[in-house]
């Protein structure tokens, strides 16, 4: 192998390893207990960073970018692990969680209720989340979580409007 091809091969391997590290939530997805829930915890500080813009449009744009980036990240990890939606892949959880809090205050009760509700819905997978999971590669890995995050967002806005908590 010539030096340029060796260099490109090494660069590809390094990028793939970094992507897999991100897909596993820097190891959170390796948790023996509820790796999706443990990995989803990364979504809380990410949400706080997006809310720090103090602009709903920027917050929504940032959440959208995260969802789009999650697809190739999860696809790469799926290929590396050789398994569809491997439980070690948690980028889909933490990169879609900020959607749950769009337009809501970053108050402890709001975050806790959104987190628990999102995890419950992720396990339940109401329609069309289960069907969305059947999409190929990273699309399916992310689509079901995006669906449950949108459900969570809607329910959270209803609860926030009715109970005015947070």
Termini separation comes to: 60 Å
Helix content: 55-70%
Radius of gyration: 17 Å
Overall geometry comes to globular
What proportion strand? under 5%
> Helices and strands: which structural class?
mainly alpha
Number of helices: 8
The total beta strand count reads: 0
Question: How would a textbook summarize the main sheet?
Answer: none
Number of domains: 1
Name the average pLDDT. Answer: 94
SSE pattern? HHHHHHHH
- Low-pLDDT runs of 5+ residues are none
Describe this structure as you would to a colleague.
By secondary structure, this protein is mostly helical. The protein has one domain (3-163). It has helices spanning 3-23, 35-40, 43-51, 56-81, 91-96, 108-124, 129-132, 137-163. The longest helix is centred in the last third of the chain and has 27 residues, at 137-163. It is globular. The termini are far apart.
Write the layout of secondary structure elements.
Elements: H1 3-23, H2 35-40, H3 43-51, H4 56-81, H5 91-96, H6 108-124, H7 129-132, H8 137-163
Characteristic key phrases:
8 helices; single chain; 166 residues; mainly alpha; 0% strand
Task: Summarize it.
The protein has 166 residues and is mostly helical.
